[in-house]
Every structure is written in C-alpha cells, then in structure tokens.
Amino acid sequence: MKILALESSATAASVAVCEDETLLAQSFQHSGLTHSRTLMPMCRDLLENCGLTLEEMEVVAVAAGPGSFTGLRIGVAAAKGLAWPGDKPCAGVSTLEAMAWPLAHLEADLCAVMDARRNQVYNARFQARGGILERLCPDRAIPVEELALELENRKKPQILVGDGAELCYNELTKRGLAVALAPPHLRLQSAWGVARGALELARQGALVPAAALAPVYHRLSQAERERLAKVENSKGEEQHG
C-alpha cells in the first residue's frame, strides 16, 4: 500500500511516501517559512523526484492534531485537495502517535509532548515493544505538573519525544524523574511517523473519505476562549444589572 503523508502540525514541515512499512522518500524542512508556502511544493517535488505520481498513491495521510491550529488546518486542507480528485481514502493520524512511531523499535516507555502553552503540553504515552506501540492514555492537553505526578506513579524511565521534550525534560528532572530526550533526528514530528500511523488505521479499516477528514484540536483556540470569556462576562453583567 503506497501512502502519501503530510506533517505540518508544528514549525517543521515534512512529506513522505511509504509502501507499507518501508520509507521510499521523505522531505523535511525546518526553515521558518509558512506551511502554506512550502507543503504543496514539497509534495510535488518529492513525487517527481521519486518518479511517482499522485495517481499511484493509495492513501493520503495527514497529522490531524493536536498541534498548531493554523498548521493543522493547512495540512488537512492540503490532504483533502490531494485526495478528492481521485476519491482516495484518507487517514487523520494523531500527531502524538506519529511522533512515537520512529521509536517503536525500542523496549521502552515513550512520552510524546508538544508545547501547548499556558503551562500545558499536548501529551500521549505509549509503551514500545519491538516495533509495536501500546497506547497508555488518550491524546490530551495536560498541565506539566499533572503529567509529572502520573509519571511518578508509573515508576518507569521515560523517553521524551516531540517539540515539548526539552521543556518537559527540565521540569521532570527537577523532580528526580528518570527521563531521557529522544535523539535530535528522531525528536521532531515527521511524515514517516504519520505514514506508519496511517498504515495501522488502514489495517483496522479506519480510513475515511476526504470529506470526513478534519483537524482534532483538543483545545479551543485563543480567539474562541476570548469570545467565550466575553459571553460569560456579559451574562454576569446582565445578572447584576
């Protein structure tokens, strides 16, 4: 099964083509340019350089969240645009799970973390067992302190992966927890992990049509939070008016 995978959930962008579990090609860019400018040219150039066509791709996969609200929207919109003309099935893959897949060959606990700001991280935990991932909790937004308490109870060394890894490493080591950073080349999000997660969804019969593909934010955007706060404030003023 040939899978075209997109990753634009954070500052880095990447595109990969895989056949089942084999990576055929990957393009990675961490230049600071906006994903709206880089993602589609990366897809076009990657396929062209591999001598492949979009028509040959059997699945279009994308990191669907959590992550940057803008980055997720760009990635999902690009995946829809690529899949729609050929009516190709799509996979909306957990960003956190995708980050864990490159380390699945280990025998270890993996803690995937992305900086969600406001003293929180997007997090999911996995146990890696020789190429298999066992999920230990759902994707969530969680305070770092709460995550630390959870890991204290787990009582197992953790490998931190994701763009929030260094942030968590500093906080967790202060508490005396046994944590290690994933190697730099495996720490950030990559499209290969998205493709590997998509393969699992395909095996489970969980692919969706392009129309059903949607970002999974796990938290309201700042604009939505501010709007709700204004609504609550106006209600309070009416009750006391």
From TrEMBL:
Q: Which BP terms from GO are recorded?
A: tRNA threonylcarbamoyladenosine modification
Residues covered by the Gcp-like domain: 34-157
> Known InterPro entries for this protein?
ATPase_NBD (IPR043129), Gcp-like_dom (IPR000905), T6A_TsaB (IPR022496)
What GO CC annotations are associated with the protein? cytosol
Q: Name one Pfam family in it.
A: TsaD
Please name the SUPFAM superfamilies in this protein's record. Actin-like ATPase domain
Check the record and name the CDD domains matching this protein: ASKHA_NBD_TsaB
Superkingdom, according to UniProt? Bacteria
Against PANTHER family, the record matches this protein to: TRNA N6-ADENOSINE THREONYLCARBAMOYLTRANSFERASE, TRNA THREONYLCARBAMOYLADENOSINE BIOSYNTHESIS PROTEIN TSAB
Q: What is this protein called?
A: Molecular chaperone
Name the source organism.
Intestinimonas butyriciproducens
